[in-house]
Description:
- The chain has one helix at residues 227-232; strands at residues 3-7, 13-17, 23-29, 35-37, 57-59, 65-66, 70-73, 76-79, 88-89, 102-107, 111-120, 131-140, 144-153, 157-158, 162-164, 181-184, 188-189, 203-204, 216-217, 236-240, 248-254, 260-266, 270-274, 298-302, 317-318, 324-334.
- By secondary structure, it is an all-beta fold.
Amino acid sequence: MNSFLLKNTNGVSVEILNYGGIISSIKTPDCNGNFQDIVLGFDTPESYFGNHPYFGALIGRFANRIANGSFTIDGKSYSTIQNNGSNHLHGGTIGFDKVLWDAEPFENENESGVILRYLSKDMEEGYPGNLTVRVTYTLTHDNILKVAYQAATDKKTIVNLTQHSYFNLSGDFSSKILDHELQLYADEYLPLNENQIPRGTYQSVANSPFDFRTPKTIGRDIEENHEQLKIGKGYDHCWVLKNNGVLSKIAEVYHPKSGRVLEVLTTEPGVQLYTANFLDNSIPSKTGGTYSPQSGFCLETQHYPDSPNQPHFPTTILEPGEDFMSETWFKFGTKNS
Length: 337
C-alpha cells in the first residue's frame, strides 16, 4: 500500500491511499487559519485493512443498494452477494474500497494529483464484463478537490461510482455534525421501503424534514417523528438533482463555529446524504474517543439506489464502446462565523 500527499499553495492537503482509493485525511484551515483534519478515518494506513464503514473509500462497481442482490440485463439474471440484509451494498464483499489500485502521481504549476487505475474482471463480485476504471484525484491551488471517474467495459454491465468520505468540518470528531448548516439544491428525494430500497416514487421535500432548499442545521429536524427518518435512523436517503449531467453546485455545508465551508458540485443525478447513523462507538477516533452516530456526514454523488431494477430511474447500464464519465468537486473555504 502506498500513500500520496497532495498539498497546495494555501496549505490545504489531501492524503490518498492506493488501497481502496481511500482519502485518509483532508486538512483545511478554519476562519482563524488553524488547520485541522476534517474527514473521519484512522491514524495509520494499515488500519484501513480491517473492517470499517467505507471511511474515505471509492465505491464500486455499484454504489448504494441493489434489492435482493440481483439484477437483469437483456433477460439474463445476475446475482451478487447480499451483504446488507437482503441487499447488495457498495459493490459487495471485495468492492473497489478493498482493492489495490495502480497509482500514478502528477504535479504541475496549477495542481497536483494522483491517477488510480483498476481492472475489475468479468464476474468479479457477480458483475458481468471486464471493467477498466480510472479515477483521478486533483487538488487545485484554489482549494478544490476534483474527483473524475472514467470506465469502459467489454460486456454490457452496470456501473455506479462514488466517493464515501465522512466529513466533520469542526475538526473535532468527538462532536456531532448536527450543528452544521446544510443547503441541498433538490426539490425531491427518494422515499425508502423498510429494507432501505427506493419505493420507486419521487417525493417532494416540501413540508418535510427533507427540505434543505434553504440552509438549516442537519440536526433541526432529524429527530422528527417521520417514517422515513425511522427507516434510515436519520438521513440516509438519495436526493434528486436537476443538473442534466452538467457540472453544477448541488450542496453547501457551513460550520458556524469554525467558519469552514464545503461546496459540492457534480454531474451526477443524485446525492446520498448519510449522517453516519450506524456508527456505534466501536471504532477509535483520530481525535480521541470513538466515532459515535452522527459524528460525520457523507454527500455521496451517484446514480440512484437499485437503478438496475427500476427502469424509470436514470440508467446505470454501460455498453461496450461507451465511456462512463462522471465528475464531482469538493470546494473548501471559510466565511466569518
